[in-house]
Amino acid sequence: MPGSDRLYSRYSTFRRLAWLQTSLLLAFACLLLQPSHAKPAEPTTLTPENGVTAEVQKLDELNNYQLLQPDGSILILGRIDQLEVDDFNFDGHTDLHVARTQGLNTYDQIYLYQPAEKHFALLKIPEDIQTHLLCDGFMNVLIFKQLDGSKILRSSCILKGADATHFEDFQFDAQGRLWIFRQYASLKRQLPETLLPYTDLPWGVTQMLTAFSPEGKVIQQQLTSRALEPITFKALTSGLTLRDSPASEAKSVFSMPKNQVCNLIDFDAETLTLQLECRAANGQTYRGWLNWQEAIDKHTSARPFILTEIGSAKLY
């Protein structure tokens, strides 16, 4: 691989800086895994609407609790370590979130206020999306505010060893039905070491973003960094070819001009190919596979032919 040793040495310092930046982002993200307003469980009064109250009551010193419903009926909550009062389905009414700690995670239950019946009911994940779940139900739940100001329900689970985390985002439709909106799955496979000089992924670990329609159809898949930022590639030389499969004899679908920016969709470590999605100047979108070895052979300068951007971090 011409120039790869020089490039690896030249960019090792930048990789360490990128590693530090991403590590700080991950540490901050881990702080966000716990509900932002969660507190140790204690007797609490809820007022979901004017003139309506409910009470969380402690039963014993083992942290077993019950909910005294507005109509006087009892709902057993079991052992809980944390509780949070907030609007979890974004309908304007106060709901109850309780959590039980186990290891690095919390196992959560959410009780939504039903204004018509004036009582609280357990929020259940619909059976048709349970098979898609990465985590064991609701875990480490928090209300997540997106860049556009909208709110979603985020669940996450820290995997054994605390070196990876799955994220699952939920929304509610107009009828109040819960649906899975987006997932970030931590991948075990990594970008090969030989490709790292051409990227600012310091350790090669990635997440797979999968987005769903309200009907449960997969509408997008794309790799992201562990900080959940999209990974984009910019070609610093012209003539790089996207093909319709990783095979060397595959048909060409798009010839990338210099400075073309593409999203990284997936990669094949065995064939050293990357699946990219590129939007051409005419607005048309092309998806295909880029052969790394072919691209490296075309690039003769000491700089890498690819510029990878993760969030605001850039390597030149």
TrEMBL record:
PROSITE patterns: PROKAR_LIPOPROTEIN
Signal sequence coordinates: 1-38
Keywords (A to Z) from UniProt: Signal
Lineage: superkingdom: Bacteria
UniProt keyword Signal present: yes
Protein name: Uncharacterized protein
Species for this entry: Saezia sanguinis
Source taxonomy: Bacteria, Pseudomonadati, Pseudomonadota, Betaproteobacteria, Burkholderiales
